[in-house]
Structures are given as structure tokens and as C-alpha cells.
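ESCALATION

Customer reports they have been waiting on this structure for their group meeting. Please prioritize. Original submission:
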Amino acid sequence: MSFFQIDNLSISFGGIKALQGISFAIDKGAIYSIIGPNGAGKTTLFNCINGIYKPDTGDIQFNNKQLRGLKPDAVARLGIARTFQNIELFNHMNTMENIMLGRHLHMRTGLFRGISMWGRRSFAGSEETAHRRRVEEIIDFLDLQGARNKLVGGLPYGIQKQVELARALALEPKLLLLDEPCAGMNSEEKQDMIFWVKDVQDELGITILLIEHDMKMVMDISDRVLAINFGQIITEGTPGEVQAHPEVLKAYLGEEDGTELGSGNAEGGNNK
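Update from on-call: job pushed to the front of the queue and completed.
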């Protein structure tokens, strides 16, 4: 069995079939991308994986463990972290504090006690010091030193997306779900994010499941790509194979003008 595998996954909302018989597998250490137009079911699939939605049918296997039926915290404890299409940070907290929140599953003292005691000398050499060291490593890895003590609400959008990635990495995941990491970014910010995602794969060895509208990013960094529409699979294969598939060209790239996927708004969280 593969490192991560989905078999015959289906879910409906009020008679609307959001996902129908979705199956695919991901090898350990790979970047696997899911593409599709708005409403195709991509974010719904993520919500099934991390326990927000309960599928009607199908299996979700991760490291030989069944995920279907588990709550989000149980899924996270198994080693799956996620970023969101819309930034989900605490604007009144600084960068370090936001990243520290990603350590909550590793804290024996408890999340809020750990945050409230952050930086106090009484905890020097204790559990909090170890968590701080790990957070500092992530800050260095993503080159966030300049934003360390700044409130995230005042940071540029691209930096906020990096902070959200950093918080997900603080969980020390084996599988990282990235929901449109480049959404809303300018070209320079996109290039930076592509660089960080590849580093997460190459240097940290983390397997990545990616939803992204930016086709250039998908084709540049993906090992394999799954194309879906109306909750069903159109094709799956290497980036070149998927990009050349006639139904993909028709549904996602523009049958006549080859317009890049992503010209519309980002897919909504419920995309039913």
C-alpha cells in the first residue's frame, strides 16, 4: 500500500454529489497536485482527509492507518498538517506566537499555558525552551527573521502566507496539505512560495498534497497531478500527461486560447 491512498471516496450534500468515486495514491516524499475549476470538489476532498467532513463511502489510508471517521485533532496527531485557502492566522499575535500554536500537539503543559509562559525565565531549560528552539529553526528555514516579533495583521500578504506555512510545519507533519498556497499573490511572492514548497519537499522530506490554480507552479514542481471536475476524476498522471489531456485543455486551460487555470476566483471552502 502507498504512503497515502484514497479509494472510492464519495460525499454528497443535500443530494448534490460533491465527490464521486475518487481514488488515487501518493508515494512518500512526493508532491502530488490536484487541479480543477472552481467547485470541482478540491477543498471538499481536503476536508474529508482531515476530518472536517465525513465521507459517505470510501477509505482514506495514511501510513497504513484508516482516517475515515477520525476527528481533525486525531488526524493531526497522526502527522497531517494543513494550510487554508484563506489565511487563518491570529492577527493580534506576533509571528512567533502564531507559529508556536502549531506546536500545541507536542505540548505536555497545554497550549494556552505554554503561550502565556512564553519567554519567561522560570521556564528556561524546560519544555517551552525546546518548543521555542524548534520554532526558531522554522523561522530560519523560511527566512522569517524580520517578522519574528511583528503582529501578523500588519505583515504583507505574502509573508502572512509564509507564516501560515511555518505554523503547519511546526506540527512536524509527515503529510502537508496545501490549499492554494499562491492564491492572491503577485508573481514575486508566488516564486518565493514555490521555492519554499520545494525546500519543504527536498530538505525536510515532507510529502505534499497540493491544491493550486497556478498551472505553472503545478507543472514545475509536481511529481504527479490529478485533474477533477464536478467531483469526478478526469485524468491522473505526470504533469506532462495531464497538461496534454484533451479534457483538461477543455475544462481548465481554455479549449481555444490556452488561458491559464486560475483566471477566476479561488474555490470556496464548501465547494459542493
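Sent to customer with the following note: DSSP finds ten helices and ten strands in the chain.
Escalation resolved.
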